[in-house]
Each structure stands twice: as C-alpha cells, then as structure tokens.
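Thread: Recoverin 3, structure

OP (GT): Posting the sequence first so everyone is looking at the same thing. Length is 192 residues per the record. Can we get the structure tokens written out before standup tomorrow? I want them in the notebook alongside the other entries.
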Amino acid sequence: MGNTKSGAVSKEILEDLKLNTKFTENEIVQWYENFKRQCPTGRISKEEFQSIYSKFFPDSEANTYAQHVFRSFDANDDGTLDFKEYIIALHMTSTGKTNRKLEWAFSLFDVDKNGYITKSEVTEICTAIFKLIPKDEVANLADDENTAEKRADKLWKFFDKGENDRVAEGEFIQGVLDNDEALRLIQYQPFK
C-alpha cells in the first residue's frame, strides 16, 4: 500500500512533489493516475514525451525542442522519465518560479551538460525554439529576430561575451533577469 506497484503514488514522492511544485495532493494523485494509465511501465520514453509535447504545439515542429526538454529533465540519464521527473518537468515549464525556471532554462541550453553555455549551444536551442513558431507568426517578428540565428545573436549579446566565450549558470540567470528581452528570447509564447 502506498507504493508505485500498488497503483498509488508513494507517500515519499507525494510529499516531495507537494514541497517542490505548486501542485496540490489531489492534483498529483490525478496526474499519477493519468500517467499510470498512459505509461503502465511507470516510465515515459523520449518518443512518448515528444508525442505528448507536440500536442501543445499543433501548428509547429516541436520534436527538436521536446528532445532538449526531455534531456534536461532526464535527471539520471536513463533515456526515460519517471513520474517524479515528469511532474517536475510539467511544473518547471509551466508554473515554476522565475529563478527555478531560469535554472531549468540553463540546463536546457547547456546541451553538453558541462556547466557552461556556448554561443553554438544558444544557437542550437534558439533553432529548436524557432521551430515552435508557426510560419504565419514568423512574418510578424522583428527584423533582428526573424531567423533562429538572429535570435541567438541577439540573446548572446545580452551576456556581453565574445563568440568563443562561455556563460556560467549565475551569469545566465542574472543576464536574463536583468533584461525582459532576453527572457522573451529564451522561450516561445504563442500569440493569444
């Protein structure tokens, strides 16, 4: 009783998620029941995650971005997300506090997981983000951000670094906190 094999979320995971997310106990239990229904093994593969994620962006190509999101939340690098990793991913990408979101954003941009972000990593993630933007919205973008490369260049300038320099996590977070434009460039918010 109370363990994942019995079909109920364990007390330990429940308490941890209540402490580390904004979700209530009832919400977590509901998420868990849905998760177990969709993923009877208790784990979600990268492909399953991409399929779920792409439903949030039906007019876009979300697979590349979803792969990066998946990588950033696969804490133990086993190629799957367990329930806890999945809920933390949902929380961080939708409702997390700004500093926590920026810590996650840093891990998203740190493609090689070496603790630093390079200009090429910024370009890689900006390219994935750019693919989320529907074609009809691209035409409305400012001239200095209407391609993935221009967005990456614009974002990189906020960190005041040379082409071959690196940005540490603290510098990244402070650079984004200090500039609303940088915050906007590290994400895609569909026009409402």
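GT: Both are above now. Quick notes for whoever picks this up: The chain has two domains: 12-95, 98-187. The first strand starts at residue 43 and ends at 45.
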